[in-house]
Amino acid sequence: MNIISLFRRRQPARRVAPPANAPMVRQPQQPGQQAPQQARQQPQQQQPQQPQQQAQRSGARQAARHYLAAHSVEKSFGSRMVVKGVTLYVRRGEAVGLLGPNGAGKTTVFYMITGLIKADRGRIELDGYDVTPLPMYQRARLGVGYLPQEASIFRGLNVEENIRAVLEVVEPDRRRRDADLKALLEEFNITRLRKTPTIALSGGERRRVEIARALATRPSYMLLDEPFAGIDPIAVGDIQQLVRHLTNRGIGVLITDHNVRETLGLTDRTYIIYSGEVLMEGRPEDIVNNPDVRRLYLGEEFRM
């Protein structure tokens, strides 16, 4: 999908507020944790809080809302139910994998989170707001970046023009656009390529430009669809470094890919989808050592 199509109308420079019809919802229960209690204060039963305590509690509540989640989502195509109540979440600053065999439903789950496919049941939450009814371009305005598997750069433009095309949509101030462009070129080490036609870039260079351009929209989360597809072995490490760079920036990253070893090598947690359900969620080492995952998906001979 063309990234410019995510922004149908010219937007102000900074993040827009969630729409009025996106109600706050309770944080989805995370594996092994109890759902947080509602933040209702009863001053008559509590001692007055010091300003520092109030700030700490307020900060904790805000931090708890910083997630992108799918909660009990379902999807059917005709009479076939392909996603059966999947729940997952991505926190800011972590990389999460979404893996599974062909036909398991992982791509459908991924597309429901991006907004490319509408869920039949369940909800999608963004930083505590229900964004289930919002189309993809509105989710993008609220901070959900998406990098498709197919090359998404404008082949008729050079590197600088690709990034500037997005900045002109999201940043009305020319001086800020120039500063943001310079910062992104330097951040991804592509300043030397700024006048290079994108058709002449290598696979790794192209991915750098695509991610830099996606960051021009100032996302809080980045959804990467098959980031290792079509990448030569030398560029695999480059892509892994880019993902780590995103998480170091505080951006939550959700990755779906068929390259299991490469994905597990860079994610903090991973969900295994099997037959439309979550077979397991956990750290890469736990995933690899789980007997059911090895029997149904990885194979007994799999090694990291």
TrEMBL record:
- Signal peptide interval: none
**What SMART domains does the record point to?**
AAA
Query: Which Gene Ontology terms cover its molecular function?
Result: ATP binding; ATP hydrolysis activity
Where do Low complexity bias regions lie? 14-62
> Does the keyword Zinc-finger belong to this entry?
no
The entry's keywords: ATP-binding, Cell inner membrane, Cell membrane, Cytoplasm, Membrane, Nucleotide-binding, Translocase, Transport
The ABC transporter domain sits at: 68-300
Read off the Pfam families from this record.
ABC_tran, BCA_ABC_TP_C
Its BP terms in the Gene Ontology are: transmembrane transport
| SUPFAM superfamilies membership | beta-sandwich domain of Sec23/24, P-loop containing nucleoside triphosphate hydrolases
Region annotated Disordered sits at: 9-63
Q: Where in the cell is it found?
A: Cell inner membrane; Cytoplasm
The GO cellular component terms are: ATP-binding cassette (ABC) transporter complex; cytoplasm
Is Transport included in the keywords of this UniProt record? yes
Membrane topology according to the record: Peripheral membrane protein
Q: List the PROSITE patterns hit by this protein, alphabetically.
A: ABC_TRANSPORTER_1, ABC_TRANSPORTER_2
What the protein does comes down to:
Part of the ABC transporter complex LptBFG involved in the translocation of lipopolysaccharide (LPS) from the inner membrane to the outer membrane. Probably responsible for energy coupling to the transport system.
Per the record, the similarity remark reads: Belongs to the ABC transporter superfamily. Outer membrane lipopolysaccharide export (TC 1.B.42) family.
Provide the assembly information. Component of the lipopolysaccharide transport and assembly complex. The LptBFG transporter is composed of two ATP-binding proteins (LptB) and two transmembrane proteins (LptF and LptG).
Query: Would you tell me the protein name for this molecule?
Result: Lipopolysaccharide export system ATP-binding protein LptB
